[in-house]
């Protein structure tokens, strides 16, 4: 086999983009993916999901989305695009390879899967933000007699028709799942703990991403100040409907906390019409429902936890030290991590769209690897060894 100069963990959009950029520069790389197909995270999300950013600004490097797709590409078409992308470049992708551990060794990196050890000069971690569901708990939760599931297990609202469903969390997934449930005739309530930022997907027919890109040179507070009157005119006073007004603006919050606003695709209109109820955060569960922080209680047949995910790359990445923050979140993305030979791609929450930012990061990473690689003999940088079955460690996945 051709020994890799670079090992990339994950064959989702970020891993594929880095692999493609390296291939264009003639640098051999090996992509290790725990699932049996590329783009595993996109395959597992709920059916209604679309790109929240427009097609023309969401393509990965060197291969745009097909022009005959809708402006906001559906989940199934994103999956098909990623499959096409993987075939369009000479990528060495190993499916069904769970990375149990990756650690510095011999001036490079040793990456251990369930049956093989790879040694490479460079390691790129591209396992994404949705690696581990975030599952908070509340008092009394074990006594709840209804159905309780995380958004990662939600597919569509068909089986919830006529049922009382509480969606916990008002990020983009929570907002869209609530809308999907409403469209399937469920009786929907949203539990919204904090004051959310909400922006429309388009303003006057212009994708919100295009506006954000045009304003990217402005300080976030200034851009928020310029946008605030327009957003108020378009969205109206949401406090009348149970959504508290947040301090500051959405771009400032992205810059400060790394949290993107809710990009509205129709949920706000359903809230205004009373078809989706809004309640505060949960205080505790009861046998037939929940008690909210304002003291009210309601019965529900099912609760969907749209409470997000954690990257948790620390589950397999060793020796990264200060390169990782709380909950295994990389402190940098798209540039040198501070640990020799280690890069992360796809972990910067970008106001201008994740896929667009992934493409920019992938090009930067590949260019930097190419500069440092000139002093290496590519074909002799790594070895592969079979691991005896009795010495295999606990596996941790990538997506």
Q: Explain this structure to me?
A:
This protein is α/β, with parallel strands linked by helices and 399 residues long. The protein folds into two domains: 210 residues, FAD/NAD(P)-binding domain (3-Layer(bba) Sandwich); 171 residues, FAD/NAD(P)-binding domain, CATH 3.50.50. Helix content is 25%, strand content 22%. The protein has a five-stranded parallel sheet, covered by helices on one side. A five-stranded parallel sheet has the order 9-20-10-11-16. Helix 1 packs parallel to helix 9 and helix 6 crosses helix 7. It is globular. The C terminus is likely disordered.
- State mean pLDDT (0 to 100 scale): 91
Principal-axes geometry comes out as: globular
Number of domains: 2
Q: Briefly, what CATH class of the largest domain?
A: Alpha Beta
In the CATH hierarchy, the architecture of the largest domain is 3-Layer(bba) Sandwich
- Going across the biggest sheet, name each strand in turn: 3-2-1-7-22
Query: Which consecutive residue ranges, at least 5 long each, have pLDDT under 50?
Result: 377-399
CATH superfamily of the largest domain: FAD/NAD(P)-binding domain
